[in-house]
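Protein modeling request. Please complete all fields; requests missing the sequence field cannot be processed.
Requester role: graduate student
Desired output: 3D structure, token encoding
Chains: 1
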Amino acid sequence: CSVCLLRIEAANRRFTSGDISGALTAYNLLPRIHLEELRELRPQMLYTFHNNRGAVQMQLEKFGDALADFDDAVALRPDSSDAHHNCGVALKALKRYDLALEEFGICLQYDPTSYSALCGKSEVLASMNRFDKAIEVASQAIEVNDNPESYRAYLSRGFARLKSGIYGGAVRDLEAAEGRGCSSKEFFTMYELALALYGDELNSMGDYDRAIPLYERALGLGSSELPSVDLLFNLSLAKLRSGDDSEDPANGFRQV
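Delivered output (256 residues):
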């Protein structure tokens, strides 16, 4: 069906140009009977159709519809690491973590160094509270791709380390993520918490010189104009115990 092929190509152009709503409308105008004809005549084109439409529906947060498309893509090409990866992404968004883990695992069988699949697997493991394994898989992702512009694995490992109580490691990972461009509000909330908890750990050990700059950095990241009472108190206490004879400790206690 030459008209069908032209419509798919037009929809693909909308997709690649970023016209997400227009692309979905164009994809959905294609009659199913014509798509079924492509299964025999042009299976690769039909595979691309389902992968692209699934990607569009993911961006529109239509995760169930996206999964249906990615499942069709897998049926057409069971050995496609991309299709299995996309299924994993959709299942993760649907919080179907066991199945998402399975799909990321199949993807990694075909492409063991897939950075995106390793990151996705680590994130799913963390969502399942399997933090030790999440740290291990994120470390593998960093080993295969320590690109200065890629922060996702550091963010995943930092989160898992934070949840595991490995505060120093969490701070180092989140610092690396920030240096690679991570800048969401949720990220800075997590980073502030990691800095504060690592500061508390060092403070309790009497390592005030290392705790103080962590508290100060955490206060600088605070999302509110009013500083955290706990942070300010612990910073002032650390300064006092470190032998700081300036007015800083007293001023901090007054603010508290």
